[in-house]
Specification:
Largest interface: A-B, 66 and 66 residues
CATH superfamily of the largest domain in chain A: Glucose-6-phosphate isomerase like protein, domain 1
Radius of gyration of chain A: 19 Å
Oligomer: homodimer
Order of helices and strands of chain A: HHEHEHEHEHEHHHEHEHEHEHEH
Helix content of chain A: 40-55%
Chain lengths: ~350, ~350
Amino acid sequence: MSLRSEIAEQPAVIRRLLEAGWPLARSLSRPLAAAEHLTIAARGSSDNAAVYGKYLFESLAGVVTALAAPSLVTRYGTPPSFARGAVIGISQSGAAPDVAAVLAEARLSRAPTIAITNNVRSLLARSAHDVFPLGAGPERSIAATKTYTATCVALALLAANSAEARGRSALSLAGLVDSVIEAEAAEREADRLARRIGRARMIVVLGRGYEYATALEAALKVKELAGVWAEPYSSADFAHGPISLLEPGIPVLLFAARGAAQREARAMSRTLRKRGARIYAVTNDAGTAELADDAVLLGAPLSEALTPISFAVVAQLFALSLATRRGRDVEHPRGLSKVTRTR
Amino acid sequence: MSLRSEIAEQPAVIRRLLEAGWPLARSLSRPLAAAEHLTIAARGSSDNAAVYGKYLFESLAGVVTALAAPSLVTRYGTPPSFARGAVIGISQSGAAPDVAAVLAEARLSRAPTIAITNNVRSLLARSAHDVFPLGAGPERSIAATKTYTATCVALALLAANSAEARGRSALSLAGLVDSVIEAEAAEREADRLARRIGRARMIVVLGRGYEYATALEAALKVKELAGVWAEPYSSADFAHGPISLLEPGIPVLLFAARGAAQREARAMSRTLRKRGARIYAVTNDAGTAELADDAVLLGAPLSEALTPISFAVVAQLFALSLATRRGRDVEHPRGLSKVTRTR
């Protein structure tokens, strides 16, 4: 069962990446330091990691960060000027033609470009000045798990070093491996959430701030693996309309970290409870866990900015349990392939 | 019935805006011309307009454009440096505290700021250096319609003038009013699509490139008005996973313009048909219309970059028909209020 074993590999993959990645991230951050702005290009799971990357680069390094609209390069032929910025492209397989096209365009305009990929011989790697190899080993399952968290770690390393290069305080990555070990061991709790969600036809997935990326990735995993429609929202955007659609039969999966966004997560939980919703939380905030119908409560100390990495591991276990309970073939989800080539 | 009459006001609102807006957009674009990058802050429908704005500013003016993550200002207190950029905030009511907070932060760092709003005496207007008033008249319905398209027109005016100020070729807005008149008259065709979609519990909404914003806004309107879960995707992202979930009972609403993205829209239509999906298109491309089970085919000549404005009007009529057929109170959608104050 390769998906479960790939999920289990994450503490080791991340430990290796933290060791090998620091000096690499330091040297790759130098060309980024002079960039006026940053663009991140990606698709699918990698695009969810890109959302996390945007929050990291904006908050830590202080650099305005856009997510690329690849069609402006590949379809319209009217890209923005990347000349005074820098561009990061992400693709675990490195085979995404549209992501590579954005990097190639940026390179033409002499902007620094970095490819984050698990395949250093890929199209994406060849399109970039510099490569940040994930070194996660082969990922055989169609659903990205260890390459997702490894990408998040690579982005955290790059953002932390960019912050230092810009004279800002860096992020401590202490405790990250332990927190991922704790998350990977939460299989039984994640399965309990999956059991309680049961046969729901649909799930709403919420996260705010840093946890917005986790909500996006959890929803994608639930769709891919369990075949359940899962719709992700920033809890702020959810309040601007879709909340009115929430019926009692639709469970809410909430990702909420202790810290700056916890008050809002608790308030959202109270609002949802009043509306009769069932709430299932993945959190390290005991108050949020108490307000939920059930929760995976993590205890390992970790910077708020890094919680999306350990929470994503719980999301993977949850999606896997939900899929298994529904009798889905998690190794070969219907209608999906490992590499999707959109242009 | 104020919603239907507000939809009908759009040709007049847009005509007025095009007349009064040109000189205003020209003067507001001057401070934007020196910006290294642009950030657009918004929520809800305005955030869908912001996605359209990103495509306009990147492709026409060539300036890298990010969508703001307001929580970095309001929750984490770690915003990026806006100092060498410019920031546009959008809120029809002008009452969005998080959008105003992003503008206030940018103003502190002396970046040029513009508020696009229908209320020139609002918090948002007071937070910005400059105001672009929509002048759409009072919008009484909870669902934003004329303020959505007016915001899109304001963004097109600003992007076109910024392009000129940067020595790039501008966008012709010729034909826009006529195309909106044509769209607003397509009530019967939009109703036919709504009838054919019938009692589906869920709809997938697709659009690529410029039409991605239309897919987002159409899905939001369908949720708000008709109470039907509508999930929007860029067709490229849809191919990266969610396509596997598409069952025969889930109809696809496709927005596709003639031009650079039409080949992909046609290819996606063929793929979806092979999978047994029913496709309903809003398009000005006869080929895409032919491949669909039914379509609203618009004929008025219009720049591809402006089609999201006329297509959005068809989306409004479609959502209204779907809501009416389901017996929903479109003036007072359950659980929604006109102004949502998220922080």
